Amino acid sequence: MFLQTLLQAAALLPILYSTASAQTACNNSPSLCNKPYNNITHLGAHDSPFLRNEQTSFSTSGNQYYNSTVQLDAGVRLLTAQVHKANETSAGSQWHLCHTSCSLLDMGTLESWLSSIKSWMDKNPNDVVTILLVNSDNAAASDLGSQFKSSGIDKYAYVPPSTTTIPQNWPTLQSLISNGTRLMTFVASITPSTTYPYLMDEFTFMFENDFNNEKPTDFSCVPARPTTLNNSTDQALSSGRMFLMNHFLYDAQLFGIQTPNENAAGSTNGQTGVGSLGTSLSTCTSVYNGRVPTFTIVDFFNRGPAMASVDKANGVTNPVGRISVPEEALKPKTGGGKKNSGSLLAVVLAVVAAVAFGC
Ligand SMILES: *[C@@H]1O[C@H](CO)[C@@H](O)[C@H](O)[C@H]1NC(C)=O
Ligand SMILES: *[C@@H]1O[C@H](CO)[C@@H](O)[C@H](O)[C@H]1NC(C)=O
Ligand SMILES: *[C@@H]1O[C@H](CO)[C@@H](O)[C@H](O)[C@H]1NC(C)=O
Ligand SMILES: *[C@@H]1O[C@H](CO)[C@@H](O)[C@H](O)[C@H]1NC(C)=O
Ligand SMILES: *[C@@H]1O[C@H](CO)[C@@H](O)[C@H](O)[C@H]1NC(C)=O
Ligand SMILES: *[C@@H]1O[C@H](CO)[C@@H](O)[C@H](O)[C@H]1NC(C)=O
């Protein structure tokens, strides 16, 4: 009996040890625990749920090869998505994650995506995750908040001291983790709500450089949004907003439809060279008097790999607890891959019709 108890206790030891060592790391590194939330760079997957892989027949509207769970496993800590109004179905909510239009690429409901992130957060208790939603069809806070609630992820949501004023000091990662408020949620844009105060209006708290870039030499640190900053880096800095650095390229546009530039992703997300992520992070840090961009969002995050430049910006040398994915582009196993041409054609025809009928 005693022996059995002893054996059981001994069997527990490795678990206790691994838990103890895991708890010393925040967002994959012990060195980040005592950093304020805004004083590190969070790697973001731009359009996180919009996939270019077998699941979407390698849709050219896809921005990532691997889904949001795999992104989080690999160290991504900011996930962005667009929320569109779609028709109610028996499957659930009418708020869907679609790229530009639901006829182009529909990745399912907001609720189901939030549930997958919640499950990941349940299993990874020392990680602070940020979600940024583009509110494409002007959903109200109650529309979005109800999805946060039904997915269960709202239990992790951080509530800012004020929904209209930037805090003097953002909490450290450790205090967010200790308080169980490890989910930061921003929406572009949202009218603050007392029922869902965790839905923070993006441009109240952040500024962004221009996202619309087609060449490596196009990248800039100048604030493009909110426009009230008058394109002034001084005004952005003194406003106290956090900097979200867009860092991805589009292919030349066809009928106004932007497709992520897959071929450039390796060098765009690289550490050195003109237009690389590493170069932009250090350039923009200098422009803002030594303050690192709080967020950077990239397409095809595994290329580069983007994580290496972000680790460097954060001074992280020995990250723990990541499951990395191959750096290469994902390609269809056979043939050229469907190019989503059916729906692209539909949109092109719609545009042509709209022009012809003058609406
Ligand atoms: C932010 O990080 C920098 C670089 O690690 C450090 O010098 C600075 O003191 C930090 N600021 C705060 C408020 O922690
Ligand atoms: C994400 O991708 C992984 C690997 O392909 C898969 O095992 C997992 O089920 C996917 N998760 C979701 C929520 O789709
Ligand atoms: C919603 O349903 C209507 C009528 O069936 C259809 O015309 C429209 O395209 C649908 N919208 C979406 C976003 O699915
Ligand atoms: C953590 O919770 C305590 C008690 O509710 C609160 O005073 C403190 O401000 C919280 N810290 C953060 C970082 O939210
Ligand atoms: C931006 O410019 C406008 C018009 O010149 C001015 O009223 C406003 O105060 C400026 N914004 C900031 C943040 O300085
Ligand atoms: C900011 O830059 C944009 C794009 O170059 C321009 O259209 C806009 O007029 C500029 N705004 C101000 C206040 O200078």
From TrEMBL:
SUPFAM superfamilies for this protein: PLC-like phosphodiesterases
Q: Where is the signal peptide?
A: 1-22
Q: Which Pfam families match?
A: PI-PLC_X (PF26146)
Transmembrane segment boundaries: none
Kindly give the InterPro entries that the UniProt entry links to this protein.
PI-PLC_domain, PLC-like_Pdiesterase_TIM-brl
Mind telling me what this protein is named? PLC-like phosphodiesterase
Determine the domain of life of the protein's source. Answer: Eukaryota
Question: What does the entry give for GO biological process?
Answer: lipid metabolic process
Write out the GO MF terms: phosphoric diester hydrolase activity
Q: Which UniProt keywords apply?
A: Signal
Organism (species):
Clohesyomyces aquaticus
